[in-house]
Amino acid sequence: MTGVLLVVASSLAVLALLAFAVSLVAFLLQTSRHRSSRGWAVATVGFLVLVLLFGGISNAVSRQSGLTLSEDRSNVPNGVGQTDRDATVKVTRVVDGDTIDISPPVKGRSRVRLIGMDTPEVHFGTQPYGSEASAFAKRELDGEEVKLELDVQKIDPYGRLLAYVYLPDGRMFNETLLEEGYAQVATFPPNVKYQDRFLKAQREARAQNRGLWGLSAAELCKQTDRGNGIGGGCSGSESQSVDGPASAGNGGDSNLDCASFAYQEEAQRVLRQDPSDPNYLDGDGDGVACEELPSTNDESPGMRSGEDGDLDCASFATQVKAQRVLKQDRSDPNYLDGDGDGVACEDLP
Fold it and tell me: Cα(58)–Cα(64) distance, rounded to whole angstroms?
């Protein structure tokens, strides 16, 4: 009914405006010819009154309609019917480090699994640092009002809502777990929106031995294998300390990384002692440890392997090795940097 009244009032206001325009023109013409224009003057005033009347009715109906629509929207529960990237909910329970319960439900789901990372388990078999991650999540999230951002896949195979969770201060809690070392990166297509950010946070936490990255090799091997060089089960050798060059590299600490060594050959010897690589020295799995470290041999990789000095990108297994050669001679006699951007053999892994 309100809509019909709005259309009628608006239509009459337009017609009155047209009539007002015609009468005003006629009035001006009669006046310019020095003829009686009293009738047109009355008509002009009358049509102006009608314009104001119907226009006022139209505006009043429009405002009332807008108020009603606003009231209807305000009755929608918070978090329901909003955009995927702006749902606000309350955390009613922290299940573990990466799973929470929320209210009201979003897309019919009350349980949320945080996207892009994985904390150690506290249910179905406790993993080292799982209780710490769960306690941290409870301190930060329990009872808080948070925002949820969804990605391409909304629901996981277990029926849980998949989301990025934002704290009241604007921090993304998924990323915070990685920054503080309570989780490792675990991204699965198509939900890879923040994968680069997450990997950066993990690298920084790992370099500082924060959280689970400060665990021993015997504890790290008990984590879930998420492709980060840890987890997947223990072979038994993890409980033994690493001897030789590795212990000399960092004062005997068996929790090593590439920063523990001065030269690549030292890291390589440690990798050969335990090819399972509990210290994650061979990040790309090509059998070469800590490729970014300098070598004790100043010759190029190709020359050390017995090849001649006429190199090209096919002479190298990885881009890092080609980059070392380019750094030794920026004139690039081997044409390793075809586009001149300072990065050698960009097609190599």
Answer: 10
At 291, is the pLDDT very low, low, confident or very high (cuts 50, 70, 90)? confident
Q: Are 337 and 312 in contact (CB under 8 A)?
A: no
Q: How far is it, in rounded angstroms, from Cα 122 to Cα 19? A: 79
112, 108, 119: which is closest to 148 by C-alpha? 112
Would you call 265 a catalytic residue per the annotation? no
Task: Give residue 123's pLDDT band: very low, low, confident or very high (50, 70, 90).
Answer: confident
Is-catalytic flag, 160? Answer: yes
In 3D, which of 164, 56, 156, 158 has the Cα closest to residue 117? 164
Tell me the sheet residues that pair with 164: 149
Q: Could you confirm whether 113 is annotated as catalytic?
A: yes
Listed by start position, the domains of the chain span 2-74, 84-212, 241-295, 297-349
> Per the residue annotation, which of 132, 140, 149, 160 is the catalytic one?
160
pLDDT tens profile 160-215: 999 999 999 999 999 999 999 999 999 999 999 999 999 999 999 999 999 999 99
Residues 6+ apart with CB under 8 A from 296: 263, 265
Among 288, 285, 327, residue whose Cα is nearest residue 344: 327
Catalytic residue among 121, 149, 238, 266: 121
Which pair of structure tokens corresponds to residue 121?
């388990």
Give the domain 84-212 fold: OB fold (Dihydrolipoamide Acetyltransferase, E2P) (2.40.50)
Inter-CA distances, 231 with 16, 71, 99, 223, 277, Å: 80, 53, 20, 4, 11
